[in-house]
Amino acid sequence: MKSIQVGLLGIGTVGSGTYNVLRRNQQEIQRRAGRGIEVTMVADLDVDRAKALVGPGVAVVNDARAVIANPDIDIVVELIGGYGIAKALVLEAIEAGKHVVTANKALLAVHGTEIFAAAHRKGVMVAFEAAVAGGIPIIKALREGLTANRIQWVAGIINGTTNFILSEMRDKGLDFSVVLQEAQRLGYAEADPTFDIEGVDAAHKATLMSAIAFGIPVQFDKAYVEGITRLGAQDIQYAEQLGYRIKLLGIAKRRSSGIELRVHPSLVPAKRLIANVEGAMNAVMVHGDAVGTTLYYGKGAGSEPTASAVIADLVDITRLHTADTAQRVPHLAFQPDAISFNEGDLPVLPMSEVVTSYYLRLRVADQAGVLAKVTGILADAGISIDAVIQREADEVGGEGSTQTDLIILTHDCVEAQMDAAIAHMQALPTVLTAITRIRKEELA
Ligand code: HSE
Question: Is the pLDDT of residue 343 over 70?
């Protein structure tokens, strides 16, 4: 049988990995897919570089639309990234009746509803395993392996750059800005690292997972996004002393009133496996009512790990493209007419309604009654304290210091309750600097 013909839009890190792994493992892949899968056309602005990466049998052009227009191409792999031209090309490929594989989490998290609807109308598949956690087959796990479950929550380290930075901050006791420079020098962080360090990349991925886990539309605009730029080395050390690590988590959690969708630094008990995921590695925990808690770990980026996910999608499409559309796995795991588009069904909750526990650090005057005032405010707000540490003033501010750090761990409360309590504490004349608040997830 004739091979499935694939056109790559972009042959950078992931594209070249896809080309190489497809060639290297072609026999094995063919035995699994039932027929060959071949890259026969590549579009890249740097035609000479692209030609040097592929064999003579591959047509290289500088116009992505020439790939889409080629009637022999069955699957278009979009590896351009971003929301601009990539969106136009994906929609045009769908309109031309091509199946699409993409690693573009930003595009799907923001425009997924439009893109999946277009694909549904045309009866083509849009596959995106590579968009979340690179080589970890988390989309497959959520969409198929865990399909029996009512998913309760998903929580993951889904950005390798920030996990590398946090690991280095903890290991070396360094502040964020110092480690960011090191990460850029080593190639773990981009020259413009904004999307990674501000939590946007993780929020794109969390948004996609929330849709698949709960049968809701992709709603990146409703995600709460907080990055790691304000974390200090001392909070990482205090967390460590309390038995926690700080990780940037992407969280999607079902509550009776709706879905929590949030990305922020979180204290995680050091004894949890996920707390020990170090460097640029990714890991995702999923809790389902039947299966309990499961954990998926691996490389979240890189040429061949991401190619592994792209090719898994190519194999799926190769197996299923002749199947009746109703027999295929739905794009977002739930049948399109069963997705809760109705706001009232399963709304994404505002951050003020999120329920979690907290780490608070207050720089206070070392005077009688300060601790009592602070704990009194928390008690009045109905917030229960789990643990308190007060540092010796000399340790914090040097010999003769009149300031100290007060570190408080709380039990669960509603974010709005905590906002009010923090505002109240901040107004005390004995609270000397801005209060640090880091959310805490037990992931039990
Ligand atoms: N920049 C991402 C990360 C990889 O650091 O994990 C691609 O999403």
Answer: no
Q: Is the pLDDT of residue 341 over 80?
A: no
* C-alpha 184 chain-centroid distance: 20
- Pairing status of strand 151-157 against strand 281-288: antiparallel
In terms of pTM, does the model score above 0.85?
yes
> Probe ligand 1: pick from 201, 249, 263, max atoms within 8 Å of CB?
201
Is the CB–ligand 1 distance for residue 18 below 6 Å? no
Residues annotated as part of the active site: 205
Of 152, 148, 181, nearest to 164 by C-alpha is 181
pLDDT at 342 over 80: no
User: Mean pLDDT across the chain, nearest whole number?
Assistant: 96
Q: Are 300 and 132 in contact (CB under 8 A)?
A: no
Report in angstroms the alpha-carbon separations of 186 from 20, 180, 189, 191, 282: 24, 10, 8, 11, 18
For the cut 80, the answer to whether the pLDDT of residue 225 exceeds it is: yes
> Domains, the chain, ranges and CATH?
4-136+304-338 (3.40.50.720), 138-299 (3.30.360.10), 353-440 (3.30.70.260)
CB-based burial label for 399 (10 Å; 0-12, 13-18, 19+): exposed
CB count in 10 Å sphere of residue 190? 13
Residue 189: per-residue pLDDT: 87
Q: How far does the centroid of ligand 1 lie from the alpha carbon of residue 102, in Å?
A: 15
Q: Is the CB of 160 under 6 A from ligand 1?
A: yes
